[in-house]
Design brief:
- This protein starts with a helix and ends in a 34-residue tail after the last helix.
- By secondary structure, the chain is an alpha+beta fold.
- It is elongated and about 120 Å long.
- Helix content is about 25%, strand content about 25%.
- A 4-stranded mixed β-sheet has the order 7-11-8-9, with helices on one face. The protein has a 3-stranded mixed β-sheet with strand order 2-5-3, with no helix packed on it.
- Strand 8 (about 150-155) and strand 9 (about 155-160) form a beta hairpin.
Length: about 300
């Protein structure tokens, strides 16, 4: 094929030009997409839970766009602290991508105090948590109705069902002691995170005593590894006894090891004045009790 051919067939010459131009355009398009999409350049997303959102935005080498999708009030944390993230830590992402976060709010939202009177302690603790409130101290008073909530207070003042309160407020419960001299066992909360361990202690009609977080980096994920009084499964203590708890950082494997290595301290097993305990409830004003509760 020579010049004379293209001179004699201008259509073929133009088709060849068009083919060459198309190849160049496709090549440039692929190069442009590769540059814009940053193909081959991905980075591991760090764990940002517990970090202040303002700090993340000021120090942002990957130019990530943080999008707040929800907020929750936490009395133990200042506002703007990341609670959850999506994608999860360890996900490979490219720069300038969006990360959706849930943060702590700067002020509590209004919630309504649920009806707690005549509930069992366990049900009352669950109702408070569902409403965004926290159960504080259990105060036991003489009453024939054992472990039944009689009234509740917040910051020393009596509060009633339907009242507006701030999310995260602590509600103390006045509870009936019941007839006779009966105690309760310390529940097994070893290996549980702090929130679940507290719920277990309170639900057993015990109070949460001093909590030790020495050396803990994240209180939300730290697990309980020690109690005092200790769990024995046998020994009973007076209703309202304070239980001291110690926490540590732990992976899932650490939790399994802590639980498997736990041994009951035989010196904590002893008889006491609560041996007259029986499994029969006294007559109650409601039928709100959980079946099978081990008091």
């Amino acid at each position: 094929m020579n010049k004379d051919f293209f001179n004699d067939h201008p259509l073929a010459r133009h088709l060849l030009y068009m083919l060459g131009v198309s190849v160049v355009i496709v090549f440039l398009a692929f190069m442009f997409i590769k540059v814009v999409a940053r193909q081959g350049r991905e980075y591991e997303l760090p764990d940002i839970c517990g970090e202040a959102l303002s700090d993340l935005k000021s120090h942002n080498p990957l130019h990530i766009k943080y999008v707040v999708i929800d907020s929750a009030y936490n009395a133990d944390k200042p506002g703007g602290i990341v609670l959850q993230q999506d994608p999860l830590p360890g996900t490979m992402i490219k720069t300038r991508r969006k990360v959706y976060v849930t943060v702590t709010s700067f002020k509590p939202s209004d919630v309504v105090l649920p009806e707690l009177s005549n509930m069992s302690v366990r049900s009352a603790v669950s109702s408070l948590e569902a409403a965004g409130l926290r159960c504080g101290r259990l105060r036991f008073v003489d009453s024939p109705y054992r472990n039944v909530v009689l009234d509740c207070t917040c910051k020393g003042k009596m509060v009633y069902a339907g009242e507006k309160m701030a999310s995260g407020d602590v509600v103390d419960l006045t509870v009936g002691r019941g007839e006779g001299n009966k105690g309760t066992r310390v529940p097994f909360v070893i290996g549980q995170v702090a929130s679940k361990a507290r719920r277990g202690i309170l639900s057993a009609s015990l109070n949460v005593g001093t909590e030790h977080f020495d050396g803990v980096s994240n209180r939300n994920t730290a697990v309980c590894y020690r109690l005092y009084p200790d769990y024995t499964g046998v020994t009973r203590y007076p209703l309202g006894t304070s239980v001291e708890m110690w926490y540590c950082d732990a992976t899932e494997a650490d939790v399994e090891r802590i639980i498997s290595n736990f041994q009951v301290d035989s010196t904590q097993i002893f008889g006491n004045e609560f041996d007259d305990y029986d499994e029969v409830y006294p007559e109650q004003p409601t039928q709100d009790f959980d079946e099978g509760w081990d008091w």
